[in-house]
Amino acid sequence: MRTVLSRRGRVVLAAVAATLATAAGGLTVAGAADASSPSPERPVVATGNGAVSGLAVDGTYAFRGLPYAAAPTGNLRWRAPQAAPSWQGVRDASSYAPACPQAPGISPPGGFSEDCLYLNVSTPALQSAVKRPVLVWIHGGGLTADSGSNYDGTKLAKAGAVVVTINYRLGALGFLAHPAFASGPDGAAGNYGLMDQQAALRWVQQNIGRFGGDPRNVTIAGESAGGLSVLAHVTSRSSKGLFQRAIVQSGAFALEQESLAQAKAFGKDFAVKVGCADQSAECLRQVPVQTLVDNVSTATALIPGAVDGAVLKEPIGTALAAGRFNRVPILNGSNHDEEALFTLGGRVVSRGYNVAYTSPVTAENYEANIAAALRISPVQAAAIAAEYPLAAYSSPDKAFGTLIGDATFACGAAQVNKWTAARYVPTYGYEFNDDTAPFLFAPAGTLSVATHGSELWYLFDLPNAPFPAPLNAEQTALADAMRAAWVKFAATGNPSTHSTYWPSSGLRGKVVSLELPAPRISADFAARHHCATFAQNLDKVK
């Protein structure tokens, strides 16, 4: 099965869609600064652009706000990222840089600015005889929100990886395609956010060895839209060689990208909305950032990027199904009830869309809601509804949300596993099943299920989560096991550890169920999520 994204659809978030980000504002990162002399508390590293002074953090070292590309402002707005300028002296790298402009929500440290192409490094040691595996984290947020500064990599660093979290351009600034930006009438345009991610990976190749990491052993990882970005790089020819492994968390929900012609047509409509009826690049590059943010958040969708001919030569699902992808080991999974987060707001994520539905769901509108959300015929909707009888669920809304989550996230993940395993790529599947996991974006007790983003607590510290909650002893043990598996996969391409064996998912579809009191192997993932039914009844079946 492959999923479809319309240009009117909106790819959804990393668990932070409705919550992360504030209005764009200006905050200038400190440039070259005279830091104190090197010390255990303020280590200094010489990067290719200049020296930086970081921090000692809980037995590790952190370097924050490192520029990996020039500020994409002025004439560089809607252009491929350019080289970051160098500096003299020692640059203070103890504070996070601004996040990229986005809609109102929770403010990460450092504020917001169009000058936002920075990354952060957490490392267990700077000097080591053996270089450590590198894990580059691509945040989610629907490609419209979130920031690398919302993910503290200290615990993963203590588990043995050098962790890099990045910012990249979001929304219209990151993914608007318009004819005026292209080098010719049929030239590439758009996907600037994906180009930023590639620029960050090139920075890693050039610099991470100085932070104790191995540039020949890089894993890209991401959740939700970040996981979708990972799949984009897995299928992108221009990303080949920039990484050796890939981790996809809840990212297989939108595998069909729109054409460049569709994206450019949308770009022309967008230009009119923001006051550039002349369709000129000069006008668009002068539009205030807040106007761009407001029109993306209220009017349209730009993601998950278009088949631009540069970063993406074809849709992600098409490339995976045909075996045209970078052959790297893949760790890929989803959470038990992905849609529970989204149905709180009367919307669902369906095959790449953020779809409103008739709420509350009732026996009378159940099948009509299914047909509308999945864009299928009434006959197909009836066949799927029969697999999810209302009597089996606590409410019609619960049945509907479970169904959509299975169709979009779970069965998307199962399909990606089959496609990649069929090409003899080591592929490891998981399902996060700790239904006691803290819910990040509402008070305790709002949800008691492993939903979209629930696993993030178990890998990172989330210093800016609106409702932080400590893990109990059992959850902490599961978190330790997950971080060990993620780091082992980054190091070797196989997540098996002394405590947990991970079978290759292969064509039989085995996954590791990440649950309490301990992970276990599950062989019925596709059956539990009714993937055969969706393959038979959804359009665009591969």
Automatic annotation (TrEMBL):
Quick check: keyword Metal-binding in the entry? Answer: no
List its EC numbers.
3.1.1.-
Q: By its UniProt entry, which Gene3D superfamilies does this protein fall under? A: alpha/beta hydrolase
- The family this protein is said to belong to: Belongs to the type-B carboxylesterase/lipase family.
Which species? Kribbella sp. HUAS MG21
InterPro entries documented for this protein: AB_hydrolase_fold, CarbesteraseB, Carboxylesterase_B_AS, TAT_signal, Type-B_Carboxylest/Lipase
Show the GO MF annotations.
Answer: hydrolase activity
Domain Carboxylesterase type B, residue spans: 42-508
Signal sequence span per UniProt?
A: 1-23
Transmembrane stretches in the record are none
> Cross-referenced PROSITE patterns, in alphabetical order?
CARBOXYLESTERASE_B_1 (PS00122), TAT (PS51318)
Instruction: Cite the entry's keywords alphabetically.
Output: Hydrolase, Signal
For this entry, the protein name equals Carboxylic ester hydrolase
Which one Pfam family would you cite for this protein? COesterase
